[in-house]
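ESCALATION

Customer reports they have been waiting on this structure for their group meeting. Please prioritize. Original submission:
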Amino acid sequence: MRKSQEVIGLSIIHLKTGEKLGTVTDLLFDRDQRWRGVVLQEGGFFKRRKYIRSDNIVSIGKDAVMVDSDQVILPFDRNAEEWISIYNGENKLKGRPLLTAGGYEMGMVENVYFMEEVGTLIGYELSGGLISDLAEGRKVVKTTHPLTWGKDVLIAPHDRIEVKDARI
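Update from on-call: job pushed to the front of the queue and completed.
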């Protein structure tokens, strides 16, 4: 299981040459809530955003994302696919409220948890705000079924979620 914040900021390294190809700046998910790739920022004066599909990533370690070819880096065109990202764009997850189907607001999305081996999004780390986070800590909502990713909020079926303390 990976936390989005653990992957964002990692270097992307070519497995055969040892060359740094860029840095992960965001994660991409599809409408079925499956992990589909990483956004990277390349070096240079004119920084262009590119992405690498998840099936082209050899491994994600503690310190780097490994790929076996620089040909797997594709131009990032938001219009080409209906991506959902963590931090950027109209469809970003960070900062969106998560409500239960019963109408209870659980908090705002700060991070997501996913299984990179199978591409499954399995949980959301929620913030109740700075004071609440300091006093009570953040919550992690794990779900056995995909949430409804609405235009303004995420909706969890109230009978299919598990809530835990993020510090555990």
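Sent to customer with the following note: The chain has a mean pLDDT of 86.
Escalation resolved.
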